[in-house]
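pasting input
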Amino acid sequence: MNLLTLVLILPMVGFLASLTIPRRFPQNSRAWALAVSLATFAQSLILLSQFDRNAPGDQFTVDIPWISTPDIHFHVAVDGISLWLILLSTFLTPICVLISWKYVQDRVKEFFAFLLLLEFGLVGVFMAQDLFLFYVFWEVSLVPMYFLIGIWGHSRRIYAAVKFFLYTMAGSVLMLVAIIYLYNRAGSFSYAVILDMLASGKLTFAPAEQMLLFLAFFVAFAIKVPLFPLHTWLPDAHVEAPTAGSVMLASVMLKMGTFGILHYCLPLFPVAARRCAPWIAILAIIGIIYGALVAMVQPNMKKLVAYSSVSHLGFVVLGIFSFTQIGMDGAVYQMLNHGITTGALFALVGFLYERRHSLEIADYGGVATVAPWLSTTFLVATLASIGLPLLNNFVGEFLVLQGTAIANFSWAAWASIGVILSACYMLWMYQRVFYGVTVAEVKKHMPDLSLREWAAIVPLIVMMVWMGVYSQSFLPPVSKATARVLEQTHINVPERVDLRRNVEVAHAR
Amino acid sequence: MPVNFGATSADLIRFLPEIILTVMGTALMVLDPVLHKRASFAFGHLSLFALAAAMVGAVYANTNPGTAFGGMLVVDGFATYFRVLVLAVGILTVLPSYSFLGRQQAETSEYHALLLFSIAGQCMMAAANDLIIVFIGLEISSISSYILAGYLRDDKRSNEAALKYFLLGSFATAFFLYGVAITYGTVGTVNLTDLRAALSGTDAPPLGFVTLAAALMFVGLGFKVSAAPFQIWAPDVYQGAPTPISAFLSAGPKAAAFAVFLRIFMTGFGPIDAAWQPLVWIAALLSMTIGNFAALLQTNVKRMLGYSSIAHAGYVLVALTAQSDTGTAAAMFYLAAYAFMNIGAFAVVSWVSGPGEKYQTLDDLAGLGRKQPMMAAMLTIFLLSLIGVPLTGGFFGKFYIFKAAMDSHLVWLSVLGLLNSAVAAYYYLRVLVMVYMHEPGDAVNETKPLTAGFRLALIVPALGTLFLGIFPTWVLDFAGKSATLGK
């Protein structure tokens, strides 16, 4: 069987099998989920080792007809971008199993089953090459997350879960209309076929038509990113979700949006994307600064990290719409970085919550003296999030800002305010939680990291350092893929659109 | 054309499902005094047997398609599809009825006999090629349904439902009949094939009268499929009728009425489609909007499903507005998917509602996921399908419908329809919230563990829903092939 489909099928098989585990053995459910998610991760590592890093196109392609009328295929493949996002998903799932080991005590079987179903949906989104299949996975991943938030979340979980579902649903029905419309025009759901038709001029869109299609796709993705001002579901969902839910949501699900923009919106509708780029860049910059400012005044740690996500994802969008190779490389790298760093931050906040049962910053203080290792790991994650050189976020932010500066220097100048602000809110939170006088409550309930928690956090820390020190392990396949995207965004773009091709390519490396 | 009333053997074979159902229904009533005391379950078994036999009959009849009784009846792929569908609806209705009738301590023989008669009428509607046969089928189906809606005769709500259904239903049938009369008066025929020929001929009859006839029939059928603005009865009847019958009403008679709808308007009035298309367009939009927005406010689950059924009728009308073979096929597929998911959802409600149908509100479902995980999981499948989440039949149904609409350049209707379905997600999610995110209340604490038979009544529709969602090709291909409707 094809390596790639195995990565997809393992979580599904794991999900179905986990339904048969009797409810009275919760330990079996946990162990099973860990085994399946580790096997999936191992499988995706094999995928990585077999991936040809010098080929720009899709690899591990599988194309099986699924439904005859209309012609829908089970068509999956990966390129240099989706490969890393799939690895990110499979890497974080076992970590999520570990951090939920004790956290989830109620309806354990269902929790881990939903976690595996979520992994199935996420991995599917990144590998689908058929627009219909993509939509299927897009919606399927929504359901387990809805339950994760709604059943195992905090006090306002129901509100948050329903809001999350409806926001995403409202965006995605418009995308469905656009997908059907594309099918009627192109006669195929296959992404590769549609791109070929665009490249050969067999399929062209009128400007207004292209703009509407672009917006239909873009709004669905922008809600997921979330781009300011469509972000309001995010703080609710992140804060109310259980730790593993927040981690998967922030680290992987948000990337579905940025991945969609990069992978679908730009190549399919280059003219409209270029027309909208200045407006979108402005929204992204507003998001960067607004997210950072709101994060600064949050009394709740989870909410603070959630708003910091709005800010960080603004960088990703900005990088994509810089239409430069460096900016796009940085955007993809920043997607991965944000996944690792924010995942780690949510996990660590979850550790604190498990001990002290509070998310309020004011309830903490002086944690460093009682739990030094917890504090150290938290510090590494904090510094990574700020963008300290030699840690991962620095590389991503640097590339994004450089690419943006090539496109428009003032955008880069405004965006860099976000970098400064991120240092303020993260360090200030760190100071209030970990330093100062040790509160009595904290002293009583704050053991240091357990072995299980070490196992969950160390891989994340290793990745932060590795990605910060030696980005060459990761970037070359990304560059190949972004170069292809950039090439596709030149197709059929009329001269009057401001196309600074020389600038875009000259700084390619 | 002279009509020969002497039935040949080919005629009888093409009428086989109706014959089987009528004979078995009569037999059930005759057997009542003999079997009554000993085994009330026997009637259920017999009824299942009759439905299965009729299904075999319907499939067998399709091996030699053609018209029967001088063109009054036609057996083609379309007729067979809907015959099998309403028979399947019958089976899905009988399965949860065993335990329901036991709980309510109601008579079983008449219940099953009436069900068989009603389905016989619907089979006839599916195969009708003549407005008079349509009318006879409609009446056979409706009169049995009126009685079934009031089957719990000591229950006030059930009585109210039956009366309302009867009064408004007869009114609507009168509209339909009036339309038939005007058609006959203007065109001189009630045969749909002849009607089509007459309307597309060179000396076509006056368009005004024909349009009036079409509009009157539209009113009558609009009532039967609970499309807005003729939907007023639906929530009351679905709320008051015995729960398995609510499920039946929302799937069986509705599917048969849509079959007739398609047959009359695509075959008979096909040539004058420009005249009636705006009617369907408006009705589709009104049904979706009224159904979905009214459902947002409901606290009674049966009533909510009633409003949701209005909205779903709106989706099917969107497929009709497309006026194409793909639209017809999409409507056929959707009705099958809808039958599975809706009957399944009603079956869960019927189990939770308990003796005397005491527990029907949304709050009564609280904590079902904790006490009855298997039932809750099945309900989740049905609700996700009603929302239209991929890998369920409901999603593909909606997808095909809106694809057909976009093929016919109805982009705005598609956008409005899909936004409507996002609104609808809210009230279905409310049920899931109750089931999984609240602690059990009285209703759920009092529910009995599932019996093996009832488990089957949940698993069969759930598997059907998933099957249509993952392998829609089989059903869709058949629907697509038979959607040409003898044009």
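fyi The mean pLDDT of chain B is 87.
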